């Protein structure tokens, strides 16, 4: 167990980091094979390992640290970031990782790790405990942008409702980098609903409306003709009684 304490300090580590600890590539490869058989470390995926706590035989790093270590550009994002901050309403066994570097989806210790291509590079926080996570404003915008593929609308609103504070200046900065008319449109529509909860300014909403362009769009796919309303303020076709099954501020289907 000569190097176990070193691996324990690393928690989650790459093969290259193991080589740095041991000194030689061949020795590191042989040692990791031995330690894996003995249960001192566990292989997460090719080239990535975790030290094991010998008291409970569980991997030392949490799922957020593991997600961060998948690639050099990996960031915990979307619903997984909401979960990291404690704002997720639903338990998920899917870990969403935005990463410029590609990796194949994989399963480890009951969780499925999947990659999304990052749309922007802003709003990332590195925590001293080893996690790299999108900040809450970036997380909100990522989830609004991808809610049909990631959270679903109801869970998105539940998560936003749990947030105590949003910095609208940060959101505008990130929206500018996103530079997507539809995202401005959806964000303005949703933030208007939470106007009083987050003290959203009229200036913020005006910018979102201006940047939305003149196109009328569907908030989500699959809205049936007998279950749709049109929001004149945001030029969005939305499901009837959209807010009925969600929590949060604002009047139900206001300004339709």
Q: What would you call the shape?
A: elongated
Radius of gyration: 22 Å
Element order, helices and strands? HEHHEEEHEHEEEEEHHHHHEEE
Mean pLDDT: 93
Largest sheet: 4 strands, antiparallel
> What is the helical fraction, as a range of percent?
25-40%
Structural class: alpha+beta
| Extended strand count | 13
Describe the structure.
This protein has 256 residues and is α+β, with helices and mostly antiparallel strands. The protein is built from ten helices and 13 strands. The protein has helices at 4-10, 15-22, 25-38, 63-68, 78-85, 136-146, 153-162, 168-178, 181-193, 202-211; strands spanning 12-14, 41-45, 48-53, 58-59, 75-76, 94-98, 106-108, 111-116, 124-126, 132-134, 217-218, 228-231, 236-239. Strands 1, 2, 3 and 4 form a four-stranded antiparallel β-sheet that branches. Strands 5-6-8-7 form a four-stranded mixed β-sheet. Helix 5 (78-85) runs antiparallel to helix 6. The protein is elongated and about 70 Å long.
A few lines on this structure:
By secondary structure, the protein is of the alpha+beta class. The protein has helices at 4-10, 15-22, 25-38, 63-68, 78-85, 136-146, 153-162, 168-178, 181-193, 202-211; strands at 12-14, 41-45, 48-53, 58-59, 75-76, 94-98, 106-108, 111-116, 124-126, 132-134, 217-218, 228-231, 236-239.
């Amino acid at each position: 167990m000569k190097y176990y304490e070193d691996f324990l300090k690393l928690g989650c580590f790459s093969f290259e980091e193991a080589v740095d600890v041991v000194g030689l590539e061949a020795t590191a490869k042989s040692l990791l094979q031995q330690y894996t058989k003995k249960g001192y470390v566990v292989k997460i995926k090719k080239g990535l390992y975790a030290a094991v706590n010998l008291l409970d035989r569980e991997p030392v790093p949490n799922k957020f640290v593991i997600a961060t270590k998948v690639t050099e550009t990996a960031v915990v994002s979307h619903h997984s970031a909401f979960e990291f901050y404690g704002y997720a309403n639903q338990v998920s066994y899917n870990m969403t990782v935005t990463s410029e570097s590609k990796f194949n989806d994989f399963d480890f210790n009951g969780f499925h790790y999947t990659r999304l291509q990052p749309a922007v590079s802003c709003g990332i926080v590195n925590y001293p405990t080893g996690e790299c996570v999108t900040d809450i404003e970036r997380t909100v915008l990522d989830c609004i942008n991808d809610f049909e593929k990631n959270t679903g609308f109801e869970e998105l609103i539940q998560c936003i409702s749990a947030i105590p504070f949003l910095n609208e200046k940060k959101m505008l900065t990130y929206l500018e980098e996103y530079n997507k008319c539809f995202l401005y449109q959806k964000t303005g529509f949703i933030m208007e609903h939470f106007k009083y909860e987050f003290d959203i300014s009229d200036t913020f909403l005006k910018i979102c409306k201006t940047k939305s362009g003149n196109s009328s769009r569907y908030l989500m796919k699959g809205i049936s003709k007998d279950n749709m309303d049109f929001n004149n303020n945001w030029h969005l076709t939305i499901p009837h009684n959209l807010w009925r099954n969600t929590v949060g501020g604002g009047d139900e289907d206001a300004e339709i």
